[in-house]
Amino acid sequence: GTTNCTVGDLVDLLIRNQFLAPASLLLPEAVGMAQEVTLPLSSQETLPVHEKQQPIQEKEVTSVKPVLYQNTEKQPSVPPCFSQENSSTQSSNADFHNFCFHDLESVTNNFDERPESAGGNKLGEGGFGIVFKGYINGRNVAVKKLAAVVDVSAQDLKQQFDQEIEIMAKCKHENLVELLGFSSDGAQPCLVYEYMPNGSLLDRLACLDGTPPISWNTRCEIAQGTASGINFLHDNNHIHRDIKSANILLTETYVPKISDFGLARASVTFTRTIMTDRVVGTAAYMAPEALRGEITPKSDIFSFGVVLLEVITGLPPVDENREPQLLLSIKDEIEDEEATIEDYVDVKMSDWDAASVHKMYSLADQCLNEKKNRRPNIQMVCSFLQAGQLHYRANAEMCGFLLVSSAGEPFNHCS
């Protein structure tokens, strides 16, 4: 350790790492001063990011008009607010359809919270809200109603809403869920998304509601598409912060689309580390540094590693009745030679082969490295999954690892 440290040095260290409670016991006035500091959006330094920081405003937003009509002979009646001509707009959100809250109530049967399987409209929960199925202009949609959260103020909820719209406005990619519009005139703000008929990867891996198991080849394609979506986010200076199988939605043909951008935070200087005093995300997927409030692109890589384990095993990320309870802990058992990855392959899947499973597990293993700088970046992950020759050596000064299978061979396409 370092010698001749003062109490002030210790307090500075605690504040930098967001341990405000112990710091306040030593020097209360120092903590008070630290909490008053705000981070300019143009800052290039690693500084605390506070909850009240306003979302980054983009200079321009690509115009994307949702297509709400299908070419059918008979269309259901359209409430006035659903008419494109009557679509009121606000500031930079003008390129999305502005729906009336009461009309969204109507198309979701007054936000019927019974599950869809029980005749209701509820599709799921997550990311500060409940998602409902609706029907607008001949098209199924998913309506997310942002609800009040116990420890989140109305101001923070409004910021969450504005941030999600801003992020979705500029994030258009085949592996990201498309935002069609929003509503801000009712009791709760709402977001309207394209509807994903096959639900979440989490539910399909569990064969919920009697759905058939996903084939190994399809699972590999889902992994590739998800990595492509993360790559797009990272290329556009966004960290998702909550990559998990429940946030990977599937189209009718099992094309994966990442959802729930409300937890994403744009970083002006993408290579910097964000320190946050609100730990966001699902613990079973979170990297060690993310649990401490330190968010980097490599946090998403760690979470994706857990998803890869789910793809291989078909198991949920956490199960209190299972040993080990956390899915990522099977990595320790395999390293200790107490088990092999074949022991954990999804028994519901019949078309897998040992070589390709080993290769995907090798990638998951490296994504789950506890040291973030030893994890591959998302470009390497995409190349690893998509290309025919997947033998990459990272810059030794940056990473110092080689992406190879557990048998020491390059990781080829898992098909």
From TrEMBL:
A Pfam match: Pkinase
Molecular function GO terms recorded: ATP binding; magnesium ion binding; protein serine/threonine kinase activity
Binding site for ATP: K144, K145, K244, S245, A246
UniProt protein name: Interleukin-1 receptor-associated kinase 4
Source species taxonomy: Eukaryota, Metazoa, Chordata, Craniata, Vertebrata
Positions of the Protein kinase domain: 117-385
Homology family: Belongs to the protein kinase superfamily. TKL Ser/Thr protein kinase family. Pelle subfamily.
GO biological process annotation, one example: signal transduction
Keyword set, alphabetical order: ATP-binding, Cytoplasm, Immunity, Innate immunity, Kinase, Magnesium, Nucleotide-binding, Serine/threonine-protein kinase, Transferase
Self-association and partners: Associates with MYD88 and IRAK2 to form a ternary complex called the Myddosome.
SUPFAM superfamilies: DEATH domain (SSF47986), Protein kinase-like (PK-like) (SSF56112)
Active site per database record: D242
EC top class, as a word: transferase
EC number(s) from the headed UniProt entry: 2.7.11.1
Catalysed reactions, semicolon-separated: L-threonyl-[protein] + ATP = O-phospho-L-threonyl-[protein] + ADP + H(+); L-seryl-[protein] + ATP = O-phospho-L-seryl-[protein] + ADP + H(+)
GO cellular component, one term: cytoplasm
Family matches, as CDD domains: STKc_IRAK4
Xref: InterPro entries: DEATH-like_dom_sf, IRAK4, Kinase-like_dom_sf, LRR_Rcpt-Like_S/T_Kinase, Prot_kinase_dom, Protein_kinase_ATP_BS
Subcellular location: Cytoplasm
